[in-house]
Write a structure and sequence with these properties.
This protein is an alpha+beta fold. Helix content is 25%, strand content 36%. It has helices at residues 23-32, 70-77, 107-121, 123-126, 135-141, and strands spanning 7-10, 36-41, 47-52, 55-57, 60-65, 80-85, 92-103, 145-159, 164-169. A hairpin with a 6-residue loop joins strand 6 and strand 7. Helix 3 (107-121) packs antiparallel against helix 5 (135-141). The chain is globular, with a radius of gyration of 17 Å. The relative contact order is 0.23.
Length: 178
């Protein structure tokens, strides 16, 4: 997917003084966030939300999971999902990305994603004392599922003195959600 900036539009629930959050500002939050929340849908329609590590790379979000985890089983039947990140206080910027999670099997793409994980999370993945030691290599060899979310629509929620809601419409075809 081309890494073009999406169209940004200020939302109707924004403060009258608010401007749309520029995509580079939202992108910086996605690139620097340490924790994300993934929302998927169970086969019976109930929602499922779980925290996880993720990386923004090449215009998409990537996350890894085991094949028996609830999120992986949910995505087998319904690829629609939402990834969120931000702050748990009433100041800052929260980001939501909606799209379709597609399983990644291409070795080159898996390697690029693993490199991005290691670059972002450092010793947590690369040090023998790290919480997720070896995850990069596990991604590279295919011992864990790797998903790519090509964003269809996104939102930035600015919090603080001036509240804003910005909608981002991404420039790619069939998976675009309205």
């Amino acid at each position: 997917m081309p890494d073009r900036d999406p169209i940004a539009e200020i939302g109707p629930f924004s403060d009258a003084r608010a401007d749309a959050t520029p995509w580079p500002t939202a992108l910086r939050v996605l690139e620097q966030a340490r924790l994300f929340w993934l929302s998927t849908v169970r086969p019976d329609g109930r929602p499922h939300v779980t925290p996880l590590l993720a990386v923004w790379n090449g215009g998409a979000l990537y996350f890894a999971t085991g094949d028996q985890e609830r999120k992986a089983r949910n995505l087998q039947g319904n690829h629609h999902c939402v990834m969120t990140t931000g702050t748990n206080v009433l100041d800052g910027l929260d980001i939501t990305i909606e799209g379709l999670a597609e399983s990644v099997s291409d070795p080159t793409e898996r390697g690029t994603a693993a490199d991005a994980y290691e670059g972002k999370y450092g010793d947590l993945l690369t040090s023998p004392d790290g919480t997720w030691y070896g995850l990069g290599d596990t991604i590279r060899v295919g011992d864990v599922l790797l998903y790519r979310i090509d964003p269809a629509v996104g939102f930035a929620f600015g919090k603080g003195e001036v509240y804003s809601q910005t909608r981002y419409r991404f420039h790619h075809g069939s998976s675009e959600q309205r």
